[in-house]
Amino acid sequence: MEKIKLVLVDDHQLLLEGIASMLDNIEYIKIVGKASSGEEAINVVNELNPSIVLMDIMMQGMTGIEASRWIKEQNEEIKIILISSDVSEKLVSLAIQAGVDGYLPKKVPKETLVEAIKTVNSGERYFGKDITSIVMDSMYNSGGTKSKPMNDGELSKREFEVLQHVVQGKSNQEVADDLFISVKTVETHKSNIMSKLDLKNTVELVKYAIKNKIIDL
User: Fold this and answer.
1) Dist CA 78 CA 71 (whole Å)
2) How would DSSP label each residue in 117-130?
3) pTM of this prediction?
4) Most buried of the four, 77, 86, 123, 216, by CB within 10 Å?
């Protein structure tokens, strides 16, 4: 069996080394790299091209979900399993939108973690039993989400989501919290939106949203 090349990502060194130690004696798994942040994970993945990235969600700076989105955009063949102590509907939904291949609570035993790695490596998705219902609910709910196709501005899906939040009067921090991205990323998206729509300020942005029925008066 060809070895599964694994990159581990966690900003807590003890947890990082703990997971590494847990998987170190499994003959068909090879840990090829480690990272302590989302930003570092992107660089490590680009350099090492692993089979799977096992990554924490809650980290300083770029979150695991945000890093997953970047990695998938650069190479969708790389599999990503997120691990978190939080299995809320919001996080699960955002993880699915980011295109992750697995999601596990941190409390799972070694056997479940290994099973998840093997399953994801084979091309299937793996979600912990206690969040399967959340995954299904998120999938069905996303199918009924109201959205407006963009034309003249050619905004990306993420830019449109940021636009919807901004025109509701939310601060950059509130938008970042709602979409589980960094404030810096919100600012970048806002700048891109303004440029694409040829608008100068938030007032013009709100007017645009009203005119195009993105929000209602």
Assistant:
1) 8
2) HHHHHTT--EE-GG
3) 0.67
4) 86
